[in-house]
């Protein structure tokens, strides 16, 4: 199921606050090797801070506005190092074409190479 979510255009990534409140966010997604998904985000966002604290997440298909398109499943997320994040950025550009290139390039101009981070998502065990 998790690899099928990588074929979609958007992934609803739900992280959790300290008090357990869910915070759903639509993100771009690419399928990784095996049963792995990758997303990408600025390092200073709430979702990255929440993943750093607790990697338990829920994922599901959604539209650009974050409206769910089906059931969500429990998963684990972890933040990648700079080199692995570079690979995620290049795969985002490849999947999303010109719009992906413009977005990634603009982000590099604003934040620098290390201002964003790749997020690895795997199925919960």
Automatic annotation (TrEMBL):
Lineage summary: Bacteria, Bacillati, Actinomycetota, Actinomycetes, Pseudonocardiales
Source organism superkingdom: Bacteria
A single GO cellular-component term on record: cytosol
UniProt xrefs under Gene3D superfamilies: Electron Transport, Fmn-binding Protein, Chain A
Keywords recorded for this protein, A-Z: Oxidoreductase
Domain Pyridoxamine 5'-phosphate oxidase N-terminal: 9-114
GO MF annotation: an example: coenzyme F420 binding
Keyword Oxidoreductase recorded: yes
Record organism: Lentzea xinjiangensis
Coiled coil: none
Protein name: Pyridoxamine 5'-phosphate oxidase N-terminal domain-containing protein
Matching SUPFAM superfamilies: FMN-binding split barrel
